[in-house]
Design brief:
This protein has a single domain, classed as Rossmann fold, CATH 3.40.50. The protein is built from 7 helices and 8 strands. It is 40% helix and 28% strand. It is an alpha/beta fold. Strand 7, helix 7 and strand 8 form a beta-alpha-beta unit.
Length: 149
Amino acid sequence: MKFSKTIFAFILLCPIGLAFSQSYTDYFVIDEIAQNYEELEAEYIGQTNVYWTDGNSINAIEQISNAANTVQVENLHIYVPTKPGAIVFSSIAITTLNIDELAEQLTTWSNVVGKQVVIHSDVVFTGAQGILLKQRLEEITGLAFTMQN
């Protein structure tokens, strides 16, 4: 049973929350189709430094920007399905084929993340397409992108 992502969105985006911005070294985003979703849910449920994406809402890039905008984030950790050269959210995929179309949305991450974006994957930045995706993400956002299993 999935925990209501609407409640998290309300808590993170409500005006009262904006008035009391919090500072986090690490902020976690978990996509609803992430591997081990249930384990991640059990580990992070109730924590205020976690956002759960919703595939029925605006695309995940905008959701992350909106949620992270309410807090100060040093490292953004993203749990999402991946394959070499592709970050596959339930609402949108970021690939070498569409990254230029998504560049404007992705640049907003540089306004909300201070240091790096960590994609929890062991393959996303492997192979020629993965290396190109990493380079383009870093060029567009000005942030370091790393992968961690």
